Amino acid sequence: MEAESASVLVLCGKSNVENEFALSLKSNNVLRFLDSNPVSICLHSEIRNLHCDSEGFQVDHYMDVLSTSQFGRFLMYSPRLGSTHDVVSHNFGELPIGAVCVADVQTKGRGRSKNVWESPKGCLLFSFTIQMEDGRVVPLVQYVVSLAVTEAVKDICQKKGIQHLDVKIKWPNDLYLDGLKVGGILCTSTYKSNKFNVSAGIGLNVSNEKPTTCLNATLQKLTPVAHELQREDIMAAFFNKFEDLYTVFMGQGFQSLEPLYYKTWLHSGQRVIVQDKNDNQDQVVENVVTIQGLTPSGYLLAISEDGQTCELHPDGNSLDFFKGLIRRKLA
Ligand SMILES: O=C(O)CCCC[C@@H]1SC[C@@H]2NC(=O)N[C@@H]21
Fold first, then answer.
1. Kind of pairing, strands 100-106 and 180-192?
2. Residue 21 CA to ligand 1 centre (angstroms)
3. Residue 172 C-alpha to ligand 1 middle, in angstroms?
4. What keywords appear on the UniProt entry (predicted)?
5. Domain positions in the chain
């Protein structure tokens, strides 16, 4: 078996505050990794002048575009890593809130429901930390993350003056373009010292046409002049948007974001089949309901043909959330 070389993790901050933190994290050597190969840590300032891979993530460019006050300011970058999600979730307590880990390639990319996330070159692969106190809104933060991705892509297209790429949200956490999945969000959380530690991971096919399609392939078909979106611009625009949307979400609730969310998702007015038990509870019958929006707990709100509102839950068995939906009647 061919031995793989050690991974490198480069630490970098937007300002002196985060760069001093990077130095202490390196000196204290407290980061833990699940990777089978050793991970060696260095500071971006130590390698800045060395020959760098022009295809690797451009840390300086990312920091230049980033304009947040908390999210994305402390960065860990690796050309090749098991999973950015593992780095963030296993080291949550050692990292500042908003810390991000980004990789060019992942060898153990994680998707939802224990799926694998294919993570070739060209895919934007990152995870970051959020901390929340109110458990009732934790299930909704994943929707704020999805919205920040779609808004970031819109914003970049607008700034470049090019045709808007219409990335849509397929509930709960998929990003679709031209009818194909181009991205996904994975949010996991743990509870410690009265706080919810949320790790949010984003995979977005920027220039990798496999396994489905990517943003740049669609852009090439839409625009006469060649334009390419860069991962660094998208990640910085993501955090710039996320910070604003998250402030609204925490201050005013998800309702304030609903008009934008419903404009961006694929489901308003969608008719879906739900499986109900008959009156004797011994047979499953299928009924049609129409999706109206989200319930306060983040499930689908639907209305049946007899006007009854209900909350739709996935049955947990199907990969496609819209198959095997189970409904809970709402008063
Ligand atoms: O659609 C899904 O199933 C969610 C996919 C999330 C993938 C991202 S890629 C960056 C981060 N690291 C991982 O291992 N997974 C998430």
1. unpaired
2. 27
3. 14
4. Ligase
5. 7-264, 270-328
| Closest C-alpha among 142, 143, 164, 145 to residue 153 | 164
DSSP output for 64-75: HH---SSTT-EE
Rg of the chain over Cα atoms, rounded to whole angstroms, equals 21
The pLDDT, as a whole number, for residue 4 is 59
Enter the ipTM.
0.99
| Residue 211, preceding peptide bond in cis (omega within 30° of 0) | yes
Rounded CA separation 241/234 (Å): 10
Q: What confidence tens digit (pLDDT) does each residue in 201-248 have?
A: 999 999 999 999 999 999 999 887 878 999 999 999 999 999 999 999
Q: Which of 26, 144, 135 is nearest to 76 (CA)?
A: 26
What digits encode the pLDDT tens for the residues 250-304? Answer: 999 999 999 999 999 999 999 998 888 788 888 888 889 999 999 999 999 999 9
Enter the CATH code of domain 7-264: 3.30.930.10
Closest C-alpha residue for ligand 1 atom 7: 203
Where does ligand 1 bind, in terms of residues with CB under 6 Å? 83-85, 106, 109-112, 115, 117, 125-127, 173-174, 184-186, 201-203
Residue with tokens 């694998």: 116
CA dihedral 53, 54, 55, 58 (to 10 degrees): 90
> Are the beta carbons of 249 and 144 closer than 8 angstroms?
yes
Does 330 score more than 90 pLDDT? no
CB atoms within 10 A of CB 188: 16
Q: How far is residue 195's CA from residue 232's CA, in Å, rounded to a whole number? A: 31
Residues counted in the chain: 331
| End-to-end alpha carbon distance in the chain | 61
Average pLDDT over residues 99-106: 98
* SS3 state at 182: strand
186's tokens: 């994975």
Q: Whose CA is nearest to atom 3 of ligand 1?
A: 111
